[in-house]
Write a structure and sequence with these properties.
This protein starts with a strand and ends in a 14-residue tail after the last strand. The radius of gyration is 16 Å and the shape is globular. 25% of the residues lie in helices and 29% in strands. The chain has an eight-stranded mixed sheet with strand order 1-2-3-4-5-6-8-7. It has helices at 21-29, 39-48, 94-105, 120-132; strands at residues 4-6, 11-14, 54-58, 61-69, 77-85, 110-115, 136-143, 156-162. The protein has 176 residues and is an alpha+beta fold.
């Protein structure tokens, strides 16, 4: 596996490994309003979906993570499930660097994600990402509040970004 290191920040970008699941889980626990899933979920992401996820590592600690996958019926689309950056490293474009690296290694035409209307940071991030890549950003109904059972969860809006140049349906080898 190849990894890439940013000399300025001493940050390594790479595919997640099983040993990263606990660090990812702990990072998300320290990053409200992100929903914390089970450690088992992060083990699966690091194992089954490692080719469409990315870890940012600094000083041998997980400081950033993007969980993403290719929906089976939309192989030209990367669905971004969670984006997290450690608090001390926020506002340094780390999430943007991770997502750019994912697009380089997973050539797709579109990115989709769901975001709650109150998550201003995520909304700003995806708007800025689309703008910087000269991509369209569309918003539509995603998952209604009542689908979450007890209604304690906000609705999730579906965001669709793209198209991105160079996308195709063939997954290339490890570029990270």
């Amino acid at each position: 596996m190849n990894s890439q290191k940013s000399k300025a920040d001493s940050i390594i970008f790479r595919r997640p490994e099983l040993k990263d699941a606990s660090g990812i889980h702990n990072l998300i626990k320290r990053s409200p309003p992100l929903e914390v899933n089970s450690l088992y979920c992060y083990l699966l992401l690091c194992d089954h979906f490692r080719n469409t996820c990315i870890v940012a590592e600094k000083d041998r600690k997980v400081v950033g993570f993007i969980a993403a996958y290719l929906p089976p019926t939309k192989l030209d689309t990367l669905f971004v499930w969670q984006v997290v950056v450690a608090k001390p490293l926020r506002n340094r474009s780390l999430a943007t660097k991770m997502l750019n690296k994912l697009l380089q290694s997973t050539p797709v035409l579109y990115i989709e994600t769901t975001v709650t209307p109150s998550n201003d940071a995520s909304m700003r991030f995806f708007r800025a990402f689309a703008h910087a890549r000269e991509a369209t950003l569309l918003s539509a109904a995603g998952y209604a509040r009542d689908l979450f059972g007890d209604n304690s969860h906000e609705e999730e809006l579906l965001l669709r970004l793209g198209p991105f140049a160079g996308g195709n349906q063939t997954i290339k080898g490890d570029i990270l």
